[in-house]
Model the fold of this input.
Amino acid sequence: MKTLNLILLLIVLTLCSFGQKPPLPADKKATKETVILFQSLYELKNKGVMYGHQDDLMYGYNWWYEKDRSDTKEATGDYPAVAGFELGHIELGSERSLDSVSFTQIAEQIKLHYKHGGVITISCHLNNPLTMQTGDTHSPWPHGTAWDVTSTEVVSSILPGGKYHELFNTWLERLANFFIGLKDENALPIPVIFRPFHEHSGSFFWWGTNICTDQEYSALWRYTVTFLRDKKNIHNILYAYNTDRVTSLDQYMRGYPGDDIIDMLSLDMYDRGEQFGGELDTALGFVTREAVSRNKLTALSETGERKGMSNWWSAVLLPVISKYPVGYVLTWRDAFNSKFSVSGNPIQSFTEDFKLFYNSPKTLFLKEVQNENIYRRK
Ligand code: BMA
Done:
């Protein structure tokens, strides 16, 4: 009898899976290429973890703007599958980002990486729209920056009805223009993963957990997406929700703007001590489970270590990320002067170990992702 029940159950499950439609992005008007990217990444996360690196294509430990150069490629012979870019200061109408990279160069590298079949992810450390207007302009850093957490009124001041709402709209217009400008050789919009207002569980940015309420945070997200998607008609963006280190799903979901807004559940977690492996294991466990149950993508969107552990890639990071369907893992930028590097990205110091990580069948770099043809090009 038991065997019969089991067989019946298997038949039902098989029939159900035949009828299952592949998941779709939150934006119902997402472009064809954006839908394809979303669905490819949804599948690929069960095959392996893509490696990503912030600003990899524009500068490295000891170089700046050299055609085709990349620290990842120098260590492994291949580019990262995921290229990370930063748009902070685009809101000000500046020509260069807060990391001194020209936006023209950023757009060019995005186009090139897309042409090569890689994935693009974009972060944005927006200035503080409220404190920027006030106070002593000679105040020391972080006055007026994303890291200025001296006021808890910032988010409410830019939402509809707030004193700086119009200013925020101007900022969103500038962001929108950048996204609209991302076109491929056939003038089709390039799909990107956008991760604004990141690390909400921390309180080190003006949108952080103790700096605004969860309702304000959610409203900020909803307003931003509605502006870009519905007002500006931009449909080539997959939106990534993100927190810093968390110890429970409840903490992770505080301020979540909703499944109709978000495409990816991502986590940032840097190695800050012995507990890291265990904490990452727990957090990736509940974040990826929740993502799969909501048909969303996943990523460990920032990680790194600063203690100088020579086998961190192979012995700490790899065993944990291999356990879960993590779409990509990204280490932060190699700031131009290595001694000044705040990225915690140990490629350069521990190249041999990074090669072990690269050679693992679990990790995917650009060539492997090209073979997967994630944009389904003919
Ligand atoms: C931070 C640091 C900063 C940088 C910012 C945006 O984590 O790397 O130096 O300005 O990211 O890229």
The first helix runs from residue 2 to 19.
